[in-house]
Specification:
330 residues, 16-stranded mixed beta sheet, 7 helices, disordered N terminus
């Protein structure tokens, strides 16, 4: 597979996920957790000063589980597809970085270059303003991969225990630099799991085929994740959801697996004209074993003139054979 071809990175991620989900069972069942965020904005301030901002963020981990009484513990097992941050650096969009972390500097550089090439071709309205020397790939590595370097627990009702969240995966820039260059994908990923902490099963007095999750306010989660990822948010942005919203859920069952879906179009403001315009949550729940097979969430946030973006996260039980996957992706 030639990574220099357009679409190579997205194709490689897709192949990786298909392998996780489709291979027959090999050595041991695992889970994959991943998230992806993307946003962009451009225009002019006071009709004179142009601005161009692009942001893309991805991280994934492979997890193994251990049962402990009325909860399931999730432990780090391996890095999935390398985490990366692709973003414009200055306000006017004259420089862009791909910061990418993997155990191999060669892999970081080759994948980072492929991600950059793909972005340049996909977004010419941004890339035409950036000179070649301002398109930078910055490789990151990891100091260690301990079993508890990424950890959380979920109880037997499928609810995440937010007090259990722990992340010690700390990517570091591999080349000498005058100042620290951050990459906080994995810290953000562990805290984004807070979005899975709301109950998804109906209460005892609600209809098992349809119910409503009421009073959702994501102010805390938006501020927490945003401040982990970006200095500018820590310094200048305070998210504040202007009103709570409700999400209706529906469910159906097949052979002991309950398929649950909640969807809403809240249109509630979260910051400076930007609104949460879509909220989707899907869960596949094994009611006999009282375990999550899959949980996915997608949110969209948009302002005026097409400015904004979306975020998506998924936890899914998989079949994992690292050697087979690596050989397929070479």
């Amino acid at each position: 597979m030639k990574l220099s071809s357009c679409g190579a990175v997205k194709f490689k991620i897709l192949v990786c996920l298909l392998l996780f989900f489709s291979f027959p069972l090999y050595s041991q069942e695992k889970y994959i957790l991943w998230y992806f965020m993307k946003g962009k904005a451009s225009g002019k301030i006071l009709f004179i000063i142009p601005f161009r901002v692009y942001y893309e963020n991805f991280a994934s981990v492979i997890l193994e589980t251990e049962n402990e009484g009325e909860k399931v513990n999730f432990y780090f097992y391996d890095i999935g597809f390398p985490g990366y941050l692709l973003r414009t650096i200055d306000f006017m969009g004259h420089e862009i970085h791909v910061r990418i972390a993997s155990p191999s500097i060669k892999e970081s550089l080759s994948l980072g270059e492929a991600i950059m090439k793909e972005w340049v071709e996909e977004y010419p309205e941004f890339s035409k303003h950036i000179k070649l020397e301002k398109r930078k790939v910055l490789p990151f590595g990891f100091k260690e991969f301990g079993k508890e370097s990424f950890f959380f627990s979920i109880n037997r009702n499928g609810i995440l225990d937010t007090s259990s969240l722990k992340c010690e995966l700390k990517p570091y820039y591999l080349w000498p630099a005058r100042e620290e260059i951050p990459l906080a994908n994995y810290d953000a990923l562990i805290q984004a799991l807070r979005l899975f902490a709301r109950p998804f099963l109906p209460s005892s007095n609600e209809d098992g085929e349809g119910w409503v999750d009421r009073g959702i306010d994501l102010t805390y989660e938006f501020n927490l994740i945003g401040r982990i990822l970006e200095q500018v948010i820590r310094d200048f942005v305070v998210f504040k959801q202007n009103k709570k919203f409700d999400v209706p859920y529906k469910a159906n069952e097949n052979n002991g697996i309950i398929y649950i879906r909640g969807e809403a179009t809240p249109n509630v403001e979260i910051w400076s004209g930007y609104r949460i315009t879509k909220y989707i949550r899907e869960v596949e729940w094994d009611k006999n074993n009282r375990t999550i097979l899959r949980e996915r969430m997608r949110m969209e946030m948009w302002g005026k003139k097409g400015r904004g973006g979306y975020g998506e996260m998924e936890l899914r039980k998989i079949n994992f054979d690292k050697k087979r996957i690596e050989e397929t992706l070479e």
